[in-house]
Write a structure and sequence with these properties.
By secondary structure, this protein is an all-alpha fold. The chain has two domains: 198 residues, Hypothetical protein af1432 (Orthogonal Bundle); 143 residues, no CATH class. Helices cover 58% and strands 0% of the residues. The longest helix has 30 residues. 50% of the residues are buried.
């Protein structure tokens, strides 16, 4: 059954109607066109110069936000096929899921959230929706207002990780993947984007996420749990042999509870670690940088992704059967042992990489760059903004709207361009 049969006209609708295009062997489905629009977007390209865990200029090997996104997209597409939802929808959601990240990753997000409280706050996922439906120029409505990439309802819904407003969000807990504490609530839409959000959520059951969004979110979790571990091993900051010591394991488990799974008991986390160490590809010696060690590490990451995705696919199929699972027909089933294993891997990386003392000063300097950039742009006015944001500033009718434009500008910058803008404006 093809996507045109599995997804009805409501799911294929766009915010602004577009002339029909051919589909089938000679053309593309609406969801394939969605994917192409994100692939060719400037917002996706900018991720190559944005922080994942460490800055993208620090080492040739470490992942940046774009390479992480591509890995998430691959995991998501493969899992979508086994679940029976449209692989293009899920891959596009994965490609889009980090578009809203500002310079310096979650650390920059934290700074912008504090600075933008008077205009509704800042959240990377809400910014992603704003990019997809407003800031990334592709389509305009009859009144001449940008509607962004004008993606289908199903794709936008799949890209909505937190389908609720700031006021409906839960209080923060734990830390982000890059080690910064969750200081703000996680939500998916700003107040002035509610119209398109309400449209894309038509037919949804409250704050329930569609299964495509759940697949995207799991793929993100799997990818960074495995790949942050790989990066840390190659960088020499993670030595899995240290987990032989009970004290080291206890410290890792404490981090898991502090950041990811509050209340998870030591015995459950210990069982999850034992099962991970039971994999044939789990390293038995210290990483030495040889081709053999690199190959062994790649086999480990492949095995981990396979184990996690297979367990979810089997559990979901056991619950819902073998037919296609689309939109709100099902929820992804993540076994407890898989949830624990992913959390343990994230805890290893968090404990040995993100909590390293040498990161504290760097994170503080990054937040200063973002804060001072916002202050300078507010002081100097629209002449310092890029032309697209200058036009938005001219159309703003309140201080809150003008602040939102400044935040949109700063959020669009890469790590390097944020530093360059800061140097120029602070020195001018």
């Amino acid at each position: 059954m093809g996507s045109m049969e599995r997804y009805d006209e409501h799911a294929r609708a766009r915010w602004v109607d577009e002339p029909p295009k051919p589909s089938g062997p000679a053309g593309r489905t609406p969801f394939e066109r969605d994917r192409a629009r994100v692939v060719h977007s400037a917002a996706l390209r900018r991720l190559a110069a944005k922080t994942q865990v460490v800055g993208p200029q620090t080492d040739d090997f470490v992942r940046n936000r774009l390479t992480h996104t591509l890995e998430v997209a691959q995991v998501a597409r493969d899992l979508a096929r086994t679940i029976g939802c449209d692989a293009d929808i899920v891959e596009t959601a994965a490609l889009a899921h980090d578009l809203g990240h500002p310079p310096f990753g979650h650390n920059g997000e934290r700074a912008l959230a504090e600075l933008s409280a008077s205009c509704g706050g800042f959240e990377g996922n809400a910014q992603t929706l704003r990019i997809l439906t407003r800031l990334e120029a592709k389509t305009f409505d009859p009144q001449g207002r940008s509607v962004g990439l004008n993606l289908t309802r199903a794709t936008l819904d799949a890209a909505t990780k937190y389908p609720w407003t700031h006021d409906d969000a839960r209080d923060p807990h734990g830390s982000h993947a890059d080690g910064t504490p969750r200081a703000g609530r996680k939500f998916g839409v700003y107040a002035d984007d509610l119209a398109v959000f309400t449209w894309l959520r038509e037919g949804a059951d409250g704050s329930r996420r569609c299964i495509e969004a759940q697949v995207m979110d799991l793929a993100d979790d799997v990818a960074y749990s495995v790949h942050d571990l790989e990066d840390g091993i190659v960088a020499g900051t993670i030595d899995l042999g240290r987990l032989e010591a009970p004290g080291e394991r206890k410290a890792v488990f404490d981090t898991v509870r502090d950041w990811y799974l509050p209340g998870a008991p030591d015995d459950e986390l210990g069982t999850a670690l034992t099962e991970l160490r039971g994999l044939r590809s789990w390293p038995t010696g210290r990483y030495d940088g040889s081709r053999a060690a690199l190959a062994a590490l790649k086999n480990l990451t492949s095995d981990l992704i396979g184990v996690f995705c297979t367990s979810v696919q089997e559990a979901t199929r056991a619950e819902y059967g073998d037919g296609p699972l689309v939109r709100y027909a099902a929820d992804l089933v993540v076994p407890r042992r898989t949830e624990l294993a992913i959390a343990v891997l994230k805890g290893v990386a968090a404990h040995y990489v993100m909590r390293a003392d040498n990161r504290v000063g760097l994170l503080e300097r990054q937040r200063d760059v973002v804060s001072e950039l916002v202050a300078q742009l507010r002081h100097r006015g629209p002449a310092e903004l890029q032309p697209v944001f200058r036009a938005d500033f001219a159309g703003a009718t309140s201080d809150a709207e003008r602040l939102r434009v400044v935040v949109d500008q700063v959020a669009s910058l890469t790590d390097a361009s944020a530093v360059a803008w800061h140097t120029r404006l602070e020195g001018g």
